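Run log, item B.
One chain of 255 residues. Sequence copied directly from the ordering sheet:
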Amino acid sequence: MFKHYAFVFLFSSFLCVDPVFAQESNALSEKSQAEIKAKLAGSINLDIKSIKASPFPSMVEVITNQGLFYASKDGKFLVQGKLYGIGSDDVVNHTEDSLSLLRIEGLKEFSNDMIVYPAKEEKHQITVFTDITCGYCRKMHKQIDEYNDLGITVKYMAYPRSGVKDQLGRLSQGFKDLQSIWCHEEPSVALTKAKLGSSVAQRICESPVEAEFDFGRQIGVNSTPAIIFPNGMLLPGYREPKDLIKILESISAES
């Protein structure tokens, strides 16, 4: 049985002729996608979300519940790593480009499920995968007013670091705590109290916590805090407000 954490490859740089041409000439029909998906699904323990052409002609891009992989078109080889395109003037990280698009599109589905701390005079937005047991998440939240004062709206998504279930198949305490916060009548108040050390009163409802956790794993989140910028870039770890605003301003200037 395939275990993603034991399947480690270094997918090093590849020389591509023309990324645009490669993608166009490497287009996959729906039938081909279905055939490759069927071959892979029968041999690996991954939930395959989608399969599409990659810039590397003999490989396809596979989006799974454990992130992005590449596979041979006959479904016999699977690679985890980054795909680079080397041109005459620059090097393109095709893997990060694909993940950035996936993040931007995927976040739209959770637009009504985030806990938001809005800036009064908003200039920028960030989305942060967070957990109440994470020390740096707590540190970041204690400075939420500083981020807001700089014009940064902070939108939180849930990412229980302990996972959704424990080794016995029971809901983890981390999941239950985040679910209770998202189920609160005032989630932003409940989240702030929890990050300041208050206990969480348990509540049950149809929350987006599991779906947000699953989405985080798909797009490369494996720790908290994890910051998603408007251009789809993922930056793991805590950043001081003054440092974060510089990054946001740099991104805005490039767009």
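Observations after the first pass:
- The CA atoms of residues 15 and 118 lie 44 Å apart.
- The first helix runs from residue 19 to 25.
Flagged for discussion on Thursday.
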